[in-house]
Amino acid sequence: MTAPDGLPPLREVIARHGLAARRALGQNFLLDLNLTARSARIAGDLTGADVLEVGPGPGGLTRALLAAGARHVVAVEKDARCLPALGEIAANWPGRLTVIAGDALSAEVEGQLAAPVKVVANLPYNVGTELLLRWLTPPVWPPFWHSLTLMFQREVAERIVARPGSKAYGRLALLAQWRAEPRIALTLPPAAFTPPPKVSSAVVHLVALPAPRFPADPATLARLTAAAFGQRRKMLRASLRGLAPRIEAVLAGVGIDPTARAEDIALEAFCALARALDTDRGA
Hints:
Elements: H1 10-17, E1 29-30, H2 33-42, E2 50-54, H3 60-67, E3 72-77, H4 83-92, E4 97-101, E5 117-122, H5 128-136, E6 147-153, H6 154-161, H7 171-179, E7 180-188, E8 193-194, E9 201-208, H8 218-230, H9 236-239, H10 247-253, H11 267-282
Parallel strand pairs: 2-3, 2-5, 3-4, 5-6
Antiparallel strand pairs: 1-8, 6-9, 7-9
Helix pairs in contact: 2-3, 8-11, 10-11
């Protein structure tokens, strides 16, 4: 039995190519083509857009992206076992799929993509957060991508959209919400995957803002948030002492109680504090 795109069902592809998921590669395959199609739709209209996919595995999401009309899909796959299956998809969609064999953390892909670019991926759990941070902290902004539609462990997804005062609120939420508009668009139970992971998953959709939400130097904000949340149980006057000798005065100057903790401070206040730290160093 073939799927609507004329290719075999994913279970047959996996069996034929011996693609048992490997824990070391963070692999959990989503085999339901209805669910992969839903993930592709979350990214919006793909016609006229290039798509970057990381960790396509046997190609379920890849097929959904092509069927949804993506102009060109660039798929980066580290597992050499998956390359023949992806080659069959490329042959079925001539000229629209480029497969790069390699590690997404080191592969050079931007030169193969033409704007507008959307990143859509069921990210391997072991590199998902690191890739997101890289996409959120490029040397220049706006970035090469227009939107990110990414599947994470649900706990990570909740950290991305978390608000001040919650246990999930931290550096990841600040960096994501400073430069993008994130939302959780879909949640999936472990049973949706093969093999089932121990946790639920969620698809997060982030749209890049044309400029950061509030002005701040990226390097200063990065240092500030790392220090603040690296010791999140401490009061800010203690966790940030290494950033400025007169940190209590700097905090008070932007209206932040020096005895407050990082999890209670909103993004706008962190950005104001970053600007104040730069001013204090230059004084």
